[in-house]
Amino acid sequence: MKKGFKAIFCRSVLQIVRRPIYWAAFFILPLFCFMFLSGLMENGLPIKVPAAMVDKDGSSMSRGITQNLAGMQLVDITADCNSYTEARHLMQEGKIFGFFMIPENFQQDLLAGRKPVITFYTNMTYFVPASLLFKTFKTTALYTKAGIALNVLESVGATEDEVVPLMQPVNISARAIHNPGLNYAVYLCNSFIPCVLQLMILLVTCFSLGQEIKYGTSRRLLAMADGSILKALAAKILPQTIIWWVIAIFMESWLFKINGYPMHGSWFWITLSELMFVLACQGCAIFFFGILPNLRMSLSVSALLGILSFSIAAFSFPVESMYSAIGIFSWILPIRYNFLIYIDQALNGIDIYYSRIWFVAYIIFMLLPFTVLWNIKRNMAKPVYAP
Amino acid sequence: MLKFLKKYILQLFTVYCREFKLILGDVGIMLFLIFLPIGYPVIYSLIYNPEQVRDVKMVVVDHDRTHLSREMTRNIDATQEAWVIGYAADLPEARRAMDSHKCYAIMEIPEGFERNILEGNQANATIFCESSLLLRYRGFLMAATNVSQAMGAEILTEKINAVAPLATTITDGDLMPIKNISMGNIESGFDSFIMPGVLILILQQCIILATGMAGGAKRERPSLIGYNGVNEEPSILMTMTGQMLCYLTILIVPIIYLIHYVPLMFSFPMAGRFSEIIAFLLPMILASAALGFCLQGIVWERESVFVLWVVTSVVFLFLSGLTWPRYAMSPFWKFISDAVPATWGVEGFIRMNTNGASLAQEASDYRMLWLLAVIYTAAAYCIQRWVVRPSIRRGYNDYDKMRREAF
Question: Please, what are the domains in chain B?
């Protein structure tokens, strides 16, 4: 039996090479997820939302509104319904995401000053398309209203110069800085793709350590390291670290170079963040394994927290809006810090001073395993497999 | 004929009982079938349960400092979405506040804001939003639109007489009221939007993970759990049917809990009919179990299922069309999403549960689910016949091989 760091390292590399499951976990699954998430949202926004028009009036004015609406970029008027019920049925069948309703005698009532009500319905069950529809419907309705008001005012003798500014005297515009087109892929891939990486790192690290205990090979591992658990773990994990670093660097270039997502800061800090992120995730995984030195239990915890991260790390729903008792859990996994550093350093490109504390968090995750080394050693020396 | 039938029913019964005992005795599988569907939805729903993003912090840079600019700031602060935490003297100061994560937006009111309004021109203000979270931006956009409309209407009524003295008689009140109605998820809450779909996804993943793990266990210790690799009985079809029935039995309580009690607890929309939803989900459960049997072809040990399958949840969530609608997917991804039971399950379930569709309206989804169930069962049969059974017949060899490979 060869001993020493190098021997364990080689053994670890061989383990990875020989088992197809590692190939899947290191390369196939993460790379598939990278391609999938950014490929799916290639267009940035799901434009051309299918919608219906319920024109119960059929007058020149109502047809004008239909034409205006159909010309908007975000919607696609796919159906022309005769009644509310018909349109609602189409919505229930999933064929449309909303509809715009013009009441009977619309033009007549409007000209007579009887104030007809225009109503639009959006299916908020589908958040993104419904929000786009809402925006378009509202704009169209407002423009229609302004146009009509203009006509009415002009008919009582006001001039156009006087009236136009009155239509919208106050205009507050909201600008999304650094993602002006509200590209959904920029918003989602930059958080979800690193989170996939975290999940895989947690799972693979726990899996590879658990295997040693399951098959009783951990005693041999310890013997090869002359009983030093630190040496055993370091040599065992290092090959994985190197592979994950390569994947992380690829991820970085995939996001910011190949897909061209906004990158306004320094490459150095982002790269450092990704590299430290890998180590932090591994540290976290070893810590889980140290607390529950059982293959299935540690994998369960990794899977549970890894999947939960997609929600609890507040990529879409902000922490400050969560219940505070739930919100604090967003800080317990490395992905949160990766996300915050991405926002500061890549998206907003602000000074590193403002993100310094997130890097400290990474270091804490890296140090976590040291608190449980004794337990890992104890269990590796006397491996017991509980299915 | 009768004898033939009797033989198969007996086989089915044997498998059913054996599988039941096996699952009840296996903590790992029980975790997937009981804890996961019961605990996970609660944790998940709690995260999003506040539903709305309220009072997001913003800083105001007011270069005008007039009555109207202050009124606008007050109006913005009064909206549900925004919370003005203070004034900044200039943009750099406001930037510093935003950079140090104290606020997420800056409203800049230019000099001459009030003067423009009084002169009868349009007055502009801008809200610069930090765009990392789209929900925050959405809130600020709503606040901006609502405030500018409300203030605009007020100013219009005040000034209209000066321009056209008769106009008030016509424009009295709203000329053409606009109403918008949110269907299904009527409060536009985030929890009610995402959770119903996630519930179905959890159900599918529980079944697949449990089946996959059971497959791993079968391969690792065939003798311990009563599988006889040499004997041809029970037949593959009866084994699969028996196992599916067994999963269905165990899952009855979790399913009722998932589709009825979780929405009840967190007051998600519940517009569907329970019996129809159950009927709708049946083929999805069968298809998921069959997909699990297919997965057994590559799961060599119990725990591999975590590494190989857990991450697919994310992929399936997006494929289901819940967040990224299916009409916007490219034909390739649409095809992949067609092949996932949860896609149809999620789509159908949210339409039935949230929009109150009937089973008849979801007929096409329902047919797709049955089609998938048939296809996956056929595929599962082939995989069980030519991959899984032979490997069990080889018995301990595989286990020994893995042991050697693990050093």
Answer: 2-49+190-405 (no CATH), 56-171 (3.40.1710.10)
